[in-house]
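Batch manifest, entry 17 of 40.
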Amino acid sequence: MTKGTNTDNYKESIKATSIFGGVQLFNIVIKIVRSKFIAVLLGPNGMGIFGLLNSTILLVSSFTNFGLQTSAVRNIADANGTKNSKQIPLVISVLQKLVWYTGLLGTIICLFGASYLSQLTFGNKDYTIAFVILSTSLLILQLTSGQLALLQGLQKYKYLAKANILGNAIGLFITVPLYFFGGIDAIVPVLLLSIIVPYILAKYYANKIKIKTTKVKIADVKHIGGNMLKMGILISMQGLLATLSSFLIRIYISKQGSVDQVGLYNAGFTITNTYIGLILTAMATDYYPRLSKVASEKLIFSKTINQQAEIALLLLAPLVILFLAFIKIAIVVLFSPKFLPIENMLLWAMLATLFKTMAWTLSYSLLAKGDSKAFFWSEFTVLIYSFGLNIGGYYFYGLTGLGVSFFITYILYFIQLVFIVRKKYGFSIDLVVWRLFVTMSLLIGFEVIAKLFTPYWVSYTIGSLLFLFLLYFSFKELNKRIEIRQIILNKIKRK
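Output type: structure tokens
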């Protein structure tokens, strides 16, 4: 691979991360504002009804969407990588048929099971009509996932970002006046409109690509659609098992401890998975289709994984150190002083961040290769030992034990994936990535030790100095790869 190609790959990753990092940040702000308005305008009762209706619809969707959005991205990206003008329309046409079939399945289940869903969710049949109306949302959700898969698979990131941002912004502007005038009675219309608007936008931007659909034979649906469904079903099953595991852990904490402890647990992992995980979520949008395109080229495939690991480590390490340095302030700002008991849990969870980052980078190799069985069993194995570690951790050490179990889980997960990808694909992590990983892990570990065993002002000082060092180091290393200084200077000159 030439130097120019290397630089282009780094630039693609950074560009996509900056775009979708901004999108994720915007979405988080919108969610915070929307939740605040719902809480004020509807009160606890209305917020509860909204949450139960929304979560039930999403649960039915998770059973009937067959993980098509994730699996289809790989098929579209793979077809796009071959530059075969006939294959891309064929794959997209098959996907369009599948999202209609699976979406209608979800709608039919919700429509005819409306009375049962109301009884199961609310303990009565008062919300049967609500579920009848919302049954159409299952089809719309699935059609939206098909359009988003198309945009992501073809790497049309600006369109994807615009659809995402506009959908959430318009949704907020619709939500507030409807709740203001309609109160609790507006919940069902708001839920339906919040699903319709993203579909319209996704469809609008997907149509801009102007890829003509083609006639699909039954054999094409069986072959291409079969591969999508085979992979998608296993991804969907893994997601359901993860949801079940998370649910059981929360039930255990509420029984062994209290509901307040469940709230603290939720808050802690909201920080690690939503706020700190923002960078990984942003990178995944570009990384997955880009890796899928080169899945058949061993050398480029390995290079892409290593480059993504470098970028992820360089971007995340300074943020983790910054969060650790100001951890108490961060908890109070994001939640309130009542949530300070999660501090030690978060220290251990933050220590796991780089292990999680490396495992995340490697796990996408299984999806990119279309190795759905290996992906499922790898993730299933993690669920088993993480569940056991979480139960044991909380039983012996409370909330801190959950942080320790999180740390141990991701060490084991990383080791597990190193062996899997080496055995299946002959992949190995480059020495430069190992050096970055070890160096940054030791620095983060040093700050965690300072937090645990030194006065606050000492750990604050150490953390601040480490942050400045890592910020300089990351900038210097990124500049070697994509010439950040030159990019900034060029933009200044244009202005």
